């Protein structure tokens, strides 16, 4: 089954995922942003500079807006090189079946890729690397920071409200009525997890609605979009003051108090004072690592910058 995108549907229509007790116990968040999915959702979304098309054309031919995403792009590996190897090692028969059923062999390159020719696999490898470098590379560090903040926030919600409540709050098109999770789709189907649980994957790039990959291994995947915060402008400085806004922006990357002071150009006591104020307001989290104290934005801090 390909990676299926959620879509607006009449009330009650969609995918119903049945959970057993063991499924709830095994449902978890991805440990880090998953670069292969971040990339294919970005390309699928279609909002990228068409000047890049010559370099990523093989990827663009396989991941087209308005179509399902072939499941041979399934790779939950957090290292991009590992994910690329996993995609390129998919058996040719599976690739051929997916292309025939979803895309059609409408171009010479697709026919070559469906046939499993080594040169076409090399073309896709190059397109994946170029796509990641040009579309995601410049903002990968903020992506990781936002991902970590999202998972911390959701984990806190699960601890205080329960996993079912958390699942129902991931996106407006997702709802939870025990023992089932409902995802809006244009057609009705019901699936039982049968003890596998699900991997919950926050996506920072390209995705605007949830997506599912129900036959991914070793467990099904539920993707949901998270807005990537962008630095605020003059209005934020007016509310917080210029120095505190600079401190907030600096903590999109984790820093010690000393690193923060040097980055912003302020004294160590002033940096500590601002970090304490932002932590008290819930915009920054602080933890001790050996002798140093390290600060980073919380999800609330990312939302403030947005």
TrEMBL record:
<dbReference type="GO" id="GO:0003677">
    <property type="term" value="F:DNA binding"/>
</dbReference>
<dbReference type="InterPro" id="IPR051011">
    <property type="entry name" value="Metal_resp_trans_reg"/>
</dbReference>
<dbReference type="InterPro" id="IPR001845">
    <property type="entry name" value="HTH_ArsR_DNA-bd_dom"/>
</dbReference>
<keyword id="KW-0805">Transcription regulation</keyword>
<dbReference type="Pfam" id="PF01022">
    <property type="entry name" value="HTH_5"/>
</dbReference>
<dbReference type="GO" id="GO:0003700">
    <property type="term" value="F:DNA-binding transcription factor activity"/>
</dbReference>
<dbReference type="InterPro" id="IPR036390">
    <property type="entry name" value="WH_DNA-bd_sf"/>
</dbReference>
<protein>
    <submittedName>
        <fullName>Regulatory protein, arsR family</fullName>
    </submittedName>
</protein>
<dbReference type="InterPro" id="IPR036388">
    <property type="entry name" value="WH-like_DNA-bd_sf"/>
</dbReference>
<keyword id="KW-0804">Transcription</keyword>
<keyword id="KW-0238">DNA-binding</keyword>
<feature type="domain" description="HTH arsR-type">
    <location>
        <begin position="238"/>
        <end position="306"/>
    </location>
</feature>
<dbReference type="InterPro" id="IPR011991">
    <property type="entry name" value="ArsR-like_HTH"/>
</dbReference>
């Amino acid at each position: 089954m390909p990676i299926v995108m959620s879509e607006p549907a009449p009330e009650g229509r969609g995918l119903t995922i049945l959970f057993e007790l063991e499924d709830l116990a095994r449902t978890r968040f991805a440990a880090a942003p998953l670069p292969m999915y971040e990339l294919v959702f970005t390309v699928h979304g279609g909002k990228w500079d068409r000047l890049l098309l010559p370099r990523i054309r093989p990827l663009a031919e396989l991941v087209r807006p308005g179509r399902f995403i072939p499941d041979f792009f399934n790779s939950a590996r957090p290292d991009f090189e590992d994910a690329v190897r996993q995609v390129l090692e998919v058996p040719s028969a599976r690739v051929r079946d997916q292309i025939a059923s979803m895309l059609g062999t409408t171009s010479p390159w697709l026919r070559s890729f469906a046939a499993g020719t080594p040169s076409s696999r090399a073309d896709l490898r190059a397109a994946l690397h170029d796509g990641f470098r040009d579309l995601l590379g410049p903002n990968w560090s903020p992506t990781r920071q936002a991902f970590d903040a999202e998972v911390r926030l959701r984990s806190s919600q699960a601890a205080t409200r329960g996993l079912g409540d958390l699942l129902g709050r991931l996106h407006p098109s997702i709802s939870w009525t025990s023992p089932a999770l409902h995802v809006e789709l244009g057609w009705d189907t019901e699936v039982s997890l049968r003890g596998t649980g699900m991997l919950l994957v926050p996506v920072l790039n390209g995705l605007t609605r949830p997506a599912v990959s129900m036959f991914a291994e070793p467990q099904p995947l539920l993707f949901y979009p998270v807005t990537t915060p962008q630095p605020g402008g003059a209005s934020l400085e007016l509310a917080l003051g210029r120095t505190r806004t600079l401190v907030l922006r600096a903590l999109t990357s984790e820093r010690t108090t000393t690193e923060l002071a040097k980055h912003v150009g302020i004294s160590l006591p002033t940096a500590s004072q601002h970090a304490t104020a932002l932590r008290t307001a819930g915009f920054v989290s602080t933890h001790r690592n050996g002798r140093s104290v390290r600060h980073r934005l919380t999800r609330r801090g990312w939302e403030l910058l947005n």
